[in-house]
Amino acid sequence: MGFDRTLIITGGAGFIGSHVVRLFVTKYPGTRIINLDKLTYAGNLANLKDIEGKPNYTFVKADICDYETVRGLVRDNNVSGIIHLAAESHVDRSIVDPFTFARTNVMGTLSLLQAARDYWEPAGWEIGGKPCRFYHISTDEVYGALELTRPEGDPSAGESGGGPFGDDFFTEETKYRPHSPYSAAKASSDHFVRAYHDTYGMPALVTNCSNNYGPYQFPEKLIPLFINNIRYRRPLPVYGKGENVRDWLYVEDHARAIDLIFHNGRDGETYNIGGFNEWKNIDLIKVLIRTVDRVLGRPEGADEDLITFVTDRKGHDMRYAIDSTKLKEELGWEPSLQFEEGIEKTVRWYLDNQDWLDNVTSGDYMSYYEKMYGV
Ligand code: NAD
Ligand code: DAU
């Protein structure tokens, strides 16, 4: 079967990447999707079982840092677009092992950019009649941290007057001020993408998204880790006092935004993606406990005794809050799910997919956590 174009999606076996691959493979049967993934501890082909037999889907196991392999892949498949999600993504791991984050997130992104440029530039940034595009998926963490000016939370604070926990948001104009090795490496990769746009004229854009949640997230991140721990009545390691604030978005809403921006966004632009949905960690954790308890038929809130305050994360950013007005006004994107609905779906998914969780919680992973936090 002939395809009208071929795209590479990197990191497609990971959490967000698997949702993006699924969306593109099913929505665009005329487009060939190559999922390029190294399958690190965070990559799992079980995330894509439902689409692996589709004719427009191909998986390639490769490291984005392997320039020659990536270059060959772009050239041999007439690739006209790259949606780049592959990264080391967990802040705690970056504190323990910053080199791996610099290698993958910075050098890997540079390797992809150069491989694309090598094929696209001589062709006038157009392959098979399709304009080329490099779309880099980044994070709100590059902007640093916002202050907690309303520590008790004010739910009546509207979008224009700031969020419930503070007066300001991250906008596309906010200065980069990354704090963790993870966010420093992501910031550096964002700069390289913009440098390729400004220096070589590569058609490229960047989006910075807030915290995602939903099915297939590796259970080292707060929400899946805690759902699993509540199920088994294991301690819930809350960093510091649990006062840090994160802005949560259901992963399928992020994937929809990526689709919209890849097809309709403007080259050289940055778009922030977020759902105006800030939660203090401790409040979110209590919602998780109540939801898991209810779904499992336990008395609601009975598992709050599992909350265990532990030493804070080093350099722990206090508050993230994204202003996604530009995306709403320019491309009409809005989150589709209310948070309560998203959490309910998410809790039910993890409780219904215990096999998936058991497979990914290998001995290696558990010993890493025991070493870090002793829980
Ligand atoms: P993840 O850790 O779940 O998945 C990362 C994927 O990248 C895995 O499949 C892994 O195997 C692959 N990978 C890692 N190193 C690789 C390499 N050298 N070569 C090829 N593949 C490699 O990550 P995620 O949470 O799905 O995040 C995806 C992207 O979105 C990342 O760039 C992250 O910075 C960004 N992001 C994540 C969030 C979030 O809340 N999770 C929010 C905003 C932005
Ligand atoms: O903001 C976007 C970012 O969100 C992404 O770029 C990252 O890839 C993603 O991992 C996520 O980073 P966070 O550090 O915010 O997510 P994490 O799930 O690790 O932690 C969420 C909050 O919960 C944070 O304040 C730390 C806290 N926490 C986390 C864990 C794992 C705990 O209190 N205990 C825990 O065990």
Describe this structure in a few short sentences.
The protein is α/β, with parallel strands linked by helices.
Describe this protein's structure.
The protein has one domain: 3-Layer(aba) Sandwich (Rossmann fold). The protein is of the alpha/beta class. Helix content is 40%, strand content 17%. The chain has a 7-stranded parallel β-sheet with strand order 3-2-1-4-7-8-12, sandwiched between helices. A 3-stranded mixed β-sheet has the order 9-11-13. Strands 5-6 form a two-stranded antiparallel sheet. Helix 6 packs across helix 8. The mean pLDDT is 95. It contains 12 helices and 14 strands.
Question: CATH topology, which one?
Answer: Rossmann fold
Fourth-level CATH superfamily? NAD(P)-binding Rossmann-like Domain
What is the CA-CA span between the terminal residues?
Answer: 53 Å
Bound small-molecule species = nicotinamide-adenine-dinucleotide, 2'deoxy-thymidine-5'-diphospho-alpha-D-glucose
Compile the SSE list and pairings:
Elements: E1 5-10, H1 15-27, E2 31-37, E3 57-61, H2 67-76, E4 79-84, H3 91-96, H4 98-120, E5 126-127, E6 130-131, E7 133-139, H5 181-200, E8 204-209, E9 211-213, H6 222-231, E10 236-239, E11 245-250, H7 251-264, E12 270-273, E13 278-280, H8 281-296, E14 307-310, H9 325-331, H10 339-352, H11 354-360, H12 363-373
Parallel strand pairs: 1-2, 1-4, 2-3, 4-7, 7-8, 8-12, 9-11, 10-14
Antiparallel strand pairs: 5-6, 11-13
Helix pairs in contact: 1-7, 2-4, 4-5, 6-8, 8-10
